[in-house]
Amino acid sequence: MNIILDYDVGNLDSVKRGFERVGVKTIVTKDETLVRQATSLILPGVGAFNEAMKSLKKSGLIPLIQAHVKKNKPLFGICLGMQLLYEQSEENGLCEGLGLLKGTIKPIKTTLKVPHMGWNQLKFRQPHHPLVKYIRENDYVYFVHSYYVVSDFSDVVAYTDYDVQIPAIVAQGNIFATQFHPEKSADVGLKILKAYGDVIA
Fold first, then answer.
1. Are 94 and 140 a contacting pair, CB within 8 Å?
2. Looking at the annotation, which residues are catalytic?
3. Which CATH superfamily does the domain covering 2-200 fall into?
4. What is the tens place of the pLDDT at every residue in 74-115?
5. Which listed site, 71, 79, 102, 170, has its alpha carbon 20 to 30 Å from 159?
6. Could you count the other beta carbons within 10 Å of the beta carbon of residue 72?
7. Mean pLDDT on 142-171
8. What are 63-78's pLDDT values in tens digits?
9. pTM over 0.90
10. Which neighbouring-strand residues pair with 158?
11. Alpha carbon 118 to chain centroid distance?
Protein backbone atom coordinates (compact mmCIF):
# COMPACT_ATOMS: atom_id res chain seq x y z
CA MET A 1 0.00 0.00 0.00
CA ASN A 2 1.49 3.29 -1.16
CA ILE A 3 0.38 6.27 0.90
CA ILE A 4 0.58 9.92 -0.19
CA LEU A 5 0.70 11.79 3.10
CA ASP A 6 -2.03 14.40 3.47
CA TYR A 7 -0.90 17.04 5.95
CA ASP A 8 -2.68 19.97 4.28
CA VAL A 9 0.41 20.97 2.28
CA GLY A 10 1.03 20.03 -1.35
CA ASN A 11 -0.67 19.37 -4.65
CA LEU A 12 -1.82 15.87 -3.77
CA ASP A 13 -4.11 15.25 -6.74
CA SER A 14 -1.42 15.87 -9.35
CA VAL A 15 1.02 13.60 -7.49
CA LYS A 16 -1.60 10.86 -7.30
CA ARG A 17 -2.37 11.23 -11.01
CA GLY A 18 1.32 11.04 -11.86
CA PHE A 19 1.74 7.74 -10.06
CA GLU A 20 -1.49 6.39 -11.56
CA ARG A 21 -0.20 7.14 -15.08
CA VAL A 22 2.70 4.74 -14.51
CA GLY A 23 0.55 2.06 -12.89
CA VAL A 24 1.38 2.75 -9.24
CA LYS A 25 -1.73 2.77 -7.08
CA THR A 26 -1.73 5.24 -4.19
CA ILE A 27 -4.03 6.35 -1.39
CA VAL A 28 -4.10 9.97 -0.20
CA THR A 29 -4.68 9.93 3.54
CA LYS A 30 -3.64 11.11 6.99
CA ASP A 31 -5.29 8.11 8.70
CA GLU A 32 -2.75 6.83 11.25
CA THR A 33 -3.78 3.18 10.92
CA LEU A 34 -3.30 3.23 7.15
CA VAL A 35 0.01 5.11 7.44
CA ARG A 36 1.31 2.47 9.87
CA GLN A 37 0.35 -0.27 7.40
CA ALA A 38 1.94 1.47 4.39
CA THR A 39 4.62 -0.33 2.43
CA SER A 40 5.70 3.01 0.92
CA LEU A 41 5.19 6.65 1.92
CA ILE A 42 5.19 9.65 -0.42
CA LEU A 43 5.79 13.09 1.15
CA PRO A 44 4.83 15.95 -1.21
CA GLY A 45 5.00 19.62 -0.30
CA VAL A 46 4.73 23.19 -1.56
CA GLY A 47 5.16 26.52 0.22
CA ALA A 48 7.34 27.51 3.16
CA PHE A 49 9.43 25.05 5.18
CA ASN A 50 8.39 26.24 8.65
CA GLU A 51 4.69 26.23 7.82
CA ALA A 52 4.98 22.73 6.38
CA MET A 53 6.75 21.49 9.53
CA LYS A 54 3.98 23.03 11.67
CA SER A 55 1.38 21.21 9.59
CA LEU A 56 3.32 17.95 9.85
CA LYS A 57 3.57 18.27 13.64
CA LYS A 58 -0.12 19.13 13.92
CA SER A 59 -1.02 16.10 11.79
CA GLY A 60 0.72 13.72 14.20
CA LEU A 61 2.47 12.04 11.26
CA ILE A 62 6.10 12.71 12.24
CA PRO A 63 6.51 9.72 14.62
CA LEU A 64 4.84 7.50 12.00
CA ILE A 65 7.24 8.69 9.27
CA GLN A 66 10.22 8.09 11.55
CA ALA A 67 8.98 4.61 12.48
CA HIS A 68 8.38 3.80 8.81
CA VAL A 69 11.94 4.74 7.87
CA LYS A 70 13.41 2.82 10.83
CA LYS A 71 11.65 -0.30 9.53
CA ASN A 72 13.62 0.19 6.29
CA LYS A 73 10.45 0.84 4.28
CA PRO A 74 10.70 3.21 1.26
CA LEU A 75 9.93 6.93 1.53
CA PHE A 76 9.77 9.32 -1.44
CA GLY A 77 9.91 13.11 -0.91
CA ILE A 78 8.90 15.63 -3.58
CA CYS A 79 10.00 19.32 -3.77
CA LEU A 80 9.43 20.82 -0.30
CA GLY A 81 8.80 17.24 0.84
CA MET A 82 12.42 16.50 -0.06
CA GLN A 83 13.68 19.52 1.89
CA LEU A 84 11.73 18.47 4.99
CA LEU A 85 13.78 15.28 5.14
CA TYR A 86 16.90 17.26 6.06
CA GLU A 87 18.14 18.55 9.43
CA GLN A 88 17.17 22.20 9.20
CA SER A 89 16.20 25.11 6.98
CA GLU A 90 17.17 28.78 6.98
CA GLU A 91 13.88 29.80 5.32
CA ASN A 92 12.14 32.47 7.46
CA GLY A 93 14.57 31.83 10.30
CA LEU A 94 16.18 28.57 11.38
CA CYS A 95 13.68 25.70 11.55
CA GLU A 96 14.32 22.07 12.41
CA GLY A 97 13.42 19.44 9.82
CA LEU A 98 12.86 15.69 10.10
CA GLY A 99 16.60 15.00 10.26
CA LEU A 100 16.39 11.82 8.18
CA LEU A 101 19.14 13.11 5.86
CA LYS A 102 22.17 15.30 6.69
CA GLY A 103 22.18 18.81 5.30
CA THR A 104 20.74 22.32 5.58
CA ILE A 105 18.24 24.10 3.34
CA LYS A 106 19.66 27.47 2.27
CA PRO A 107 18.55 30.28 -0.08
CA ILE A 108 19.71 30.09 -3.69
CA LYS A 109 22.26 32.89 -4.09
CA THR A 110 22.66 33.75 -7.75
CA THR A 111 22.38 36.56 -10.26
CA LEU A 112 19.83 34.39 -12.08
CA LYS A 113 16.12 34.68 -11.41
CA VAL A 114 14.85 33.41 -8.05
CA PRO A 115 12.56 31.53 -7.56
CA HIS A 116 14.31 28.98 -9.73
CA MET A 117 11.30 28.21 -11.89
CA GLY A 118 11.30 26.21 -15.10
CA TRP A 119 13.01 23.39 -16.95
CA ASN A 120 16.61 22.45 -16.15
CA GLN A 121 18.89 19.58 -17.06
CA LEU A 122 19.87 16.72 -14.79
CA LYS A 123 23.55 15.91 -14.34
CA PHE A 124 24.23 12.42 -12.99
CA ARG A 125 26.50 11.64 -10.05
CA GLN A 126 25.19 8.10 -9.66
CA PRO A 127 24.32 7.04 -13.23
CA HIS A 128 23.51 3.46 -12.21
CA HIS A 129 21.06 4.33 -9.44
CA PRO A 130 17.65 2.61 -9.82
CA LEU A 131 15.77 5.96 -9.88
CA VAL A 132 17.47 7.11 -13.09
CA LYS A 133 17.43 3.83 -15.01
CA TYR A 134 14.73 5.01 -17.46
CA ILE A 135 16.14 8.49 -18.11
CA ARG A 136 19.27 9.98 -19.64
CA GLU A 137 21.76 12.53 -18.41
CA ASN A 138 20.81 16.06 -19.56
CA ASP A 139 17.09 15.24 -19.61
CA TYR A 140 14.99 18.21 -18.50
CA VAL A 141 12.73 18.36 -15.42
CA TYR A 142 10.56 21.11 -13.93
CA PHE A 143 11.67 23.07 -10.82
CA VAL A 144 9.88 25.64 -8.65
CA HIS A 145 11.88 26.67 -5.57
CA SER A 146 13.93 29.42 -3.92
CA TYR A 147 15.88 27.24 -1.46
CA TYR A 148 18.08 24.20 -1.96
CA VAL A 149 19.94 21.51 -0.03
CA VAL A 150 23.52 22.19 1.01
CA SER A 151 25.17 18.92 2.03
CA ASP A 152 28.32 16.87 1.47
CA PHE A 153 26.69 15.59 -1.78
CA SER A 154 27.12 11.95 -0.69
CA ASP A 155 23.39 11.26 -1.17
CA VAL A 156 23.09 13.12 -4.50
CA VAL A 157 22.06 10.94 -7.45
CA ALA A 158 21.64 13.88 -9.86
CA TYR A 159 21.98 17.65 -9.66
CA THR A 160 21.22 20.67 -11.82
CA ASP A 161 23.39 23.74 -12.44
CA TYR A 162 21.81 27.10 -11.62
CA ASP A 163 24.93 29.14 -10.84
CA VAL A 164 25.22 26.69 -7.94
CA GLN A 165 24.95 22.90 -8.00
CA ILE A 166 21.46 22.08 -6.76
CA PRO A 167 20.79 18.51 -5.60
CA ALA A 168 17.88 17.37 -7.79
CA ILE A 169 17.57 13.66 -6.98
CA VAL A 170 18.81 12.30 -3.67
CA ALA A 171 18.79 8.82 -2.20
CA GLN A 172 20.14 7.16 0.90
CA GLY A 173 19.14 3.62 1.77
CA ASN A 174 15.34 3.46 1.72
CA ILE A 175 14.92 7.25 1.36
CA PHE A 176 14.44 8.77 -2.12
CA ALA A 177 13.54 12.33 -3.10
CA THR A 178 13.42 14.90 -5.90
CA GLN A 179 13.74 18.68 -5.61
CA PHE A 180 11.78 19.08 -8.84
CA HIS A 181 8.20 18.01 -9.48
CA PRO A 182 8.25 14.66 -11.33
CA GLU A 183 4.47 14.84 -11.75
CA LYS A 184 4.94 18.10 -13.73
CA SER A 185 8.04 16.99 -15.64
CA ALA A 186 6.37 15.30 -18.63
CA ASP A 187 7.68 11.89 -19.73
CA VAL A 188 10.99 12.23 -17.87
CA GLY A 189 9.20 12.78 -14.57
CA LEU A 190 6.86 9.88 -15.18
CA LYS A 191 9.85 7.62 -15.90
CA ILE A 192 11.28 8.54 -12.49
CA LEU A 193 7.95 7.71 -10.81
CA LYS A 194 7.93 4.44 -12.75
CA ALA A 195 11.44 3.67 -11.52
CA TYR A 196 10.31 4.29 -7.92
CA GLY A 197 7.38 1.95 -8.63
CA ASP A 198 9.93 -0.73 -9.58
CA VAL A 199 11.81 -0.16 -6.31
CA ILE A 200 8.67 -0.71 -4.23
CA ALA A 201 7.20 -3.52 -6.34
1. no
2. 79, 181, 183
3. Class I glutamine amidotransferase (GATase) domain (3.40.50.880)
4. 999 999 999 999 999 999 999 999 999 999 999 999 999 999
5. 71
6. 8
7. 97
8. 999 999 999 999 999 9
9. yes
10. 124, 169
11. 17
